[in-house]
From TrEMBL:
This is DUF3494 domain-containing protein. Residues 1-18 form the signal peptide. Coiled coil: none annotated. Residues 226-281 are annotated as: Disordered.
Length: 281
């Protein structure tokens, strides 16, 4: 298969194959999931569950706040770690990737799978364009580390959603000071969010620690497009007119003419001559 190579100064028209979403299983409920330790400094707010397994050391909450449930070395956290391994492997093996390298700053990427055999950086802004599809999926397969610079951003446009962006990191991820990050980090080792780094997504570490410093994290929820209902008017029944039957006229009897009987004419007797037997001439 011919790989497509992307320079860090060029926009990318799209990956060769559409990416399919990653089922996170029980790990999907977590905004933060670590393996060895979870350490926080400052007023971090975690919107979602926080879990640790097999380690047991969670520090910095408070002053940090968890708007969710903490699962520390319990069955829920153990299952989440198992499902994290499965999700990590699914993300790392999706085919049809566009090859990327260097720094992703300044790029506009369309849905698909992107692969780097080594480390990836982000300076400035990266734009992920969903092209009008709210189900568009972006998967980044990174062979080594992921490092974002201070103040870097990931911009989601045209329907792209953080819930459909996955960063499979072969080593550790570090998010720069006051950076803005979107997507779920599936790190083989550890995740560090430095001061003020905000995350619209998840930080999930398979084998190492999660370190936070005044880092707001919100577990993303996909917005499902509401189909526009097709306008269908209720048919108005056609009222058949009531036909009043026309009465059949009764025939008018024809009056029989009254026959006036002809008057009987009484003949006037002819006078006879007296004693002659003859009438007058």
């Amino acid at each position: 298969m011919v790989a497509l190579v992307v320079s860090f100064v060029l926009d990318v028209s799209g990956a060769s194959l559409a990416a399919t979403t990653i089922n996170l299983g029980a790990a999907g409920n977590f905004a933060v999931l670590g393996s060895s330790t979870i350490t926080n400094i400052g007023s971090t707010v975690v919107n979602g569950d926080l879990g640790l397994n097999p380690g047991a050391s969670v520090t910095g909450f408070p002053p940090g706040v968890v708007n969710g449930t903490q699962h520390i070395t319990d069955g829920v956290a153990a299952q989440a770690q198992i499902d994290l391994v499965t999700a990590y492997n699914l993300a790392s093996t999706q085919a049809g990737a566009v090859i990327i390298s260097g720094d992703l700053g300044g790029l506009t990427l369309t849905p698909g799978v992107y692969n780097s055999a080594t480390s990836i950086g982000l300076t400035g802004g990266l734009t992920l364009d969903g092209q009008g599809n709210q189900n568009a999926v972006f998967i980044f397969q990174i062979g080594s580390t992921l490092t974002t610079a201070s103040g870097s951003t990931i911009n989601l446009i045209n329907g792209a959603q953080a819930c459909n962006v996955f960063w499979q990191v072969g080593s550790s991820a570090t998010l720069g000071t006051n950076s803005s990050f979107s997507g779920t980090i599936l790190a083989f080792a550890s995740v560090t969010a430095t001061t003020g780094a905000s995350i619209n997504g998840r930080v999930l570490a398979r084998n190492g620690a999660v370190t936070l410093d005044t880092s707001p994290i919100t577990r993303p929820v996909c917005i499902v497009a509401t189909p526009t209902p097709t306008s269908s008017s209720t048919p108005i029944p056609t009222v058949s007119p009531t036909i009043t039957p026309t009465p059949t006229p009764s025939p008018t009897p024809t009056a029989s003419p009254t026959v006036t009987p002809a008057p009987t004419v009484t003949p006037t007797p002819t006078p006879k001559l007296p004693n002659t037997g003859f009438g007058p001439n």
